[in-house]
Structure formats: C-alpha cells, structure tokens
Amino acid sequence: MTLTVPTEPVGGRDIVQSELARRSHRSNTIAALRGTPSTTAPLPFYTLTRHDFTLADPLSAAKQVGWRYLIVDGEAPGVVMVSTRKGHFEFAGIASGPLPQRLYEAVTLANRALGTDPITYEVRLLDLPSMRAFAVWLNGASSQFISLMEGQPPGSAALRIETGADFIGRLKTRKVSPSNPTATNAHPTN
Q: Which of 25, 133, 178, 186 would suit a FRET pair with 116, their CA atoms being 20 to 30 Å apart?
C-alpha cells in the first residue's frame, strides 16, 4: 500500500512556518511547540453536511476547506490549521490535546495495518460537524476510514479501520445529541 497526499499548496508551508515562529514563546502552554517541532506533509481537510448524507454517494459532496499540518517532534503532537477562502490560504489556529494525538496514532495505524494492501490511498481528513464525527479518510479504489471520535467520552474507543460503506452506514443511523462534545467544536489554541 502507498499512502499519498496531494501536492502541497503553494504558500501553505510559508504560512505554517511563520505562524509557528510567531507562537514559539507559547511553548509553556502548547506542548506541541516544546522541543524541536516540525510539521508533516499537509493533509487535505474536507467537510460534509447532514444534507450531504441524503445523497446516494455522500462522499461525492465532500468539500475541501483547508489543510492540516501535523506537528511532530514536539513534546506532544499538535495540528496547524490552514483554511482555504476564495482561493487564498489563511492561518486558522493551532490545536493540541487528544485529537492531534489520535490523528498521529491513526496515521501510524494506517501505515502498519494496510502495508500489504495493493491499493494506493490518498490520506485526507473528514469533518462531519452535524454528525459529531471526525475521521482519517483513506481515499482509494475502496475507501477506508479511521474514526477519531468514537466512544464515551469521545475519542476513547480503540482506533480501527473500517470500510467506507460501514463508516457511512453507521453515521446514517447515528442519533446525534446536541450536547455530545466533539473535536469539531473544540477551539484552537492560537
């Protein structure tokens, strides 16, 4: 198996490096900035709405709204968020805590578990705010997903890879509670 990411957006890395440098003094409150942090290749960030789930193929409606750069080599993983607005990139924040840790673990799981799979997957992130879900989307001939927010509390269930049909089917039957906290309503640490 090969995990790939699309070509990095022109100017994206410059924004990330500039914003990380501007926040280096915040390392006492942001563990991802302690040590010698670096960033991985960016992961495209997609969203889906509840309405999109009424379509025969909900994933065809996914919209890319930005990029996420995983911060590694710090004291803990973090994520730099870059949004795409009208064809321009802008810094959207730095997230730390359980979600970046789960993201790091999920990408590691994908590398380890799908290593003998002949399919090439493009690694994406998929946010479904109205469904209270966030996942690593391994987009390929047969898409796979690793949900990051399963369990109570959210994010406490063991990570597992599931087929696209199973992931979408499970979400279509999910009862969503407005008070159920998720990473999608977490505020970035800027």
A: 133
